[in-house]
């Protein structure tokens, strides 16, 4: 009897504790696996349900009206997945269990993330902060997330790339923010990054070698930014042309004005950065010549021969293509070039720029530039009026006549003239028709009189 009584007392003591741990599903919630998975969504809750089992490993209280859950979830030591999305949280929750691996906080009202907010969440592999109001992430706030693989910050108000991002990241979504520049230090640490979405931001260009230190990168979305199609964007332009990634290349220019709304990949290098072919400043050129140009004729000829070899080898275009303009190009000006040197240059092949062409089509503005190319005429043996040229240098270049090219204004004038002629011809035909009509009417009136008189 005593043993039976002891057993009954033991059961009565254990059952209340068991009922606390293995409590039934909270009212209104859905529990497919009681004690493991609890879904309490869209119930208008202002606080967490009290009867959620402590052994729950996945809890969702999304789409409610929760404003503060600080330290309310710390007793759930085995919680691995937590969804607090679509609530009214104004700051990152405190006192979350360290066992969390997935945390969803999308569509709340969080504005700032402090350095200590995620200090205890070293097991997180997925963090979703989409569609909040985050303006800043304190430096070092994400440093301790050594297992984080997926970070979503889409639809916030960030103006720069978060610093100290964990190297374990494989997916980073920063789209629909206000980011105006990419920080090389933050990007270079993401050696495992595979997917980067930074579309719908305020980027104007991408710094050099921004993506070169991301060996695992396989997808990048850069659409809908404020791309300035100028010299600073040439790195991104060539990186897209390299075809390293299979990605959409329909990046639209926002600046400068004459290239706005045009696709970046449809432009040429010269259209993007015209300064690559601009002439050297005359004052700078004169100062360089004082120190670099040889004084003797023999040295000058040797310099021209060297320049000819570099031109045939394609060294100048290579420097231009890599955006390193030469500061001491060969001076082709009346002040520095003699007649003999001009004749020597005439024998050398012209600079070929065929390899400067890219796979992108040339813009319409540059197609019109072909009409202004100077026409080269056959060489002649005639000498100038000032004297004769030695027999060794008789292959002179004739002066190019100042021919006026056929322009659009000429074509418009011709079209206008043809239109006037057509109008005159039409008026003339109309006059002829009117005269013929009058003649026919007159004959109809005269014909009956003639018949009556004959009867």
What does this structure look like?
With 455 residues, this protein is an alpha/beta fold. It folds into 3 domains: 19-98, Leucine-rich repeat, LRR (right-handed beta-alpha superhelix) (Alpha-Beta Horseshoe); 110-277, Alpha-Beta Horseshoe (Leucine-rich repeat, LRR (right-handed beta-alpha superhelix)); 279-352, no CATH class. Helices cover 29% and strands 9% of the residues. The protein contains 10 helices and 14 strands. It has helices at 2-21, 184-188, 234-241, 269-272, 282-292, 297-313, 315-321, 339-347, 364-367, 408-454; strands at residues 30-33, 37-39, 58-60, 81-83, 102-104, 112-113, 126-128, 136-137, 150-152, 171-173, 195-197, 219-221, 227-228, 253-255. The protein has a 10-stranded mixed beta sheet with strand order 1-2-3-4-5-7-9-10-11-12, with no helix packed on it. Strands 6-8 form a two-stranded parallel ribbon. Strands 13-14 form a two-stranded parallel ribbon. Strand 10 (171-173), helix 2 and strand 11 form a beta-alpha-beta unit. The protein starts with a helix and ends with a helix. Residues 3-21, 311-335, 350-403 and 450-455 have low confidence and may be disordered.
Structure in a nutshell:
The protein has helices at residues 2-21, 184-188, 234-241, 269-272, 282-292, 297-313, 315-321, 339-347, 364-367, 408-454; strands spanning 30-33, 37-39, 58-60, 81-83, 102-104, 112-113, 126-128, 136-137, 150-152, 171-173, 195-197, 219-221, 227-228, 253-255.
